[in-house]
Write a structure and sequence with these properties.
This protein is mainly beta and 295 residues long. Strands 1, 2, 3, 4, 5, 6, 7, 8, 11, 12 and 13 form an eleven-stranded antiparallel β-sheet that branches. It has a two-stranded antiparallel sheet with strand order 9-10. Helices cover 11% and strands 48% of the residues. The longest helix has 11 residues. The protein starts with a strand and ends with a helix. It contains four helices and 13 strands.
Length: 295
Amino acid sequence: GWAATARMNLKLADFADVNVSGAKSTIGFGSIDSKVSERSRSENTAFDISSNMELGKFLPKKSGVKIPMFISYSKQVATPQFDPRTPDIELSKALEVSNKAQRDSILNFAQDYTTRSSLAFTNVRKDRVNQEAKVRLWDIENFNISYAQSKLSHRDFINEATIQNTYKASLAYNYSYTSKSYTPFSKIIKSNTLKLLKDFNFSLLPNSINFRVDFDRFYAENTLRNNDPNTNIPIYTTYNKNFLVTRVYGIAWDLTKSLSLDFDATNYSIIDEPDGKIEGLKRDTLWNNLKSLGR
């Protein structure tokens, strides 16, 4: 048996970093001092590619837009030496006497096959280009968004199909400003007798306001194979679903020079999903529950 690995790292100017790797090992591979029974009994291949990119580089620098993106894909395949349905026959022999359709069916049963993919946009925002400009409540620079998804697909001799999908998204607003303090009576009242009234002050705007809403969804399906030809008991697909929404609010306000207000609140809710596979009219039900931000 033999094994090999390869890796390549690319840097595309200041736009992206790309990493590619691959590995392969054949039946019989193992350490020099390992016994025959301890060596690999499957042919394994693996491939992985990932990249960090800054898509904001495609826009003019003066726009101040930042779009960090991460993307990845990986695939692992393990082909056993023996056919798991008939363990006394080598898989290669079974494939030799089969037509294409039969070979595809045999490999679908025998191989341990896994793919993973992910995509993420983290802290997409617009930076302030003019640092001297006045900070306002409605500035687009106060907002940022993030989105990430990951998907896993797997099958083997026991599992006919396993799917695990994760989705995360967030919208955030952050306003921060050194608020001006007003003393309306300081120039009118000169006497120290009325110093308390003379020093009266207030601030019109809060020092900071923040808001964030996070969506976190997990969805999984699993279907087992019926590997017993003597039973007709149906095997049903099982589902695992969880959809959460978190809302966070906060405000800090120096009402006067000696009186400040800080308020924070967090709300958790659940998006109810219909039973079973989400398709057809069930998608409409899910969207309606999402619009109300859950229960």
